[in-house]
Amino acid sequence: MHSVDVSDPVWNHLLDVRGAGTSIAATDGWSEDEYQAVELYGPVASRSGKPMVIGQIGQSLDGRIATVSGDTRDISGPDGLAHLHRLRALVDGVVIGVKTALHDAPRLTVRLCDGPNPARIIIDPRGRLPDDAAVLRDDGSRRIVIQAVDQDRPEGVEVVRLAARDGLLHPEEIIQALTERGIHSLLIEGGGFTISRFMEAGLLDRLHVAISPVLLGGGSSGLTLPSPPERLTDAIQPETAVFQLGSDVVFDCALRADS
Fold first, then answer.
1. Is the bond into 191 cis (omega within 30 degrees of 0)?
2. pLDDT digits (tens, 9 = 90+) for 192-210
3. pTM of the predicted model as reported, rounded to 2 decimal places
4. Of 110, 149, 187, 254, which residue is the least packed, with the fewest Cβ within 10 Å?
5. Cβ–Cβ contacts within 10 Å for residue 237, how many?
6. Mind listing the domains of the chain with CATH numbers?
7. Residue 49 has what DSSP assignment?
């Protein structure tokens, strides 16, 4: 397991190369823990000059993302939350499903580190998200709703219309539509169903699983694929590195050979 130190010099360097497609090398004087921070965040920051789609899920030791009552607050420890905010700062846009937007009322802003706010993107096939939702608040960041219905949104909110299939929007068409609008790196943040659909479609370059030292004993599970394999030999087996970030442990899973 690699210990990570996201020092100010390292983080500022990652922000400087954000989206540049350049390789990131350790600078003289960096410690081993600082170098490991580059190993963890470098692929997301540099993107090797191509689009990048990363999923991130925070869960308990027993694989839960919510309690039996649906409480998701503080599933991740403080360092796990800071990790999530760093990923937000390194991508062009962050994606959530409408269920997460309705239940958790997230802001999807960068508050626990320096860096720009990403575009906030909500997948809302049936137009259930109210116009006064926190995620649609006008704070200068791009706000995008992807929907299948003909429904107006507040001024400044971009609407992407896609055709639904069995009530769902296809992940590949979502990525294509966002790429056409200049969003070339995406963080698929939640919930577990949304991340699983992008992963099963083979569209995630990387997956970060942040695990906090808490046992819930019940509640919502993390990733549940729509069509899980029946045999262990058919399971997804990504190349994985493990990083210690203070309160949480992060599994960095490369789902594509060139990611």
1. yes
2. 999 999 999 999 999 999 9
3. 0.95
4. 149
5. 9
6. 51-228 (3.40.430.10)
7. G
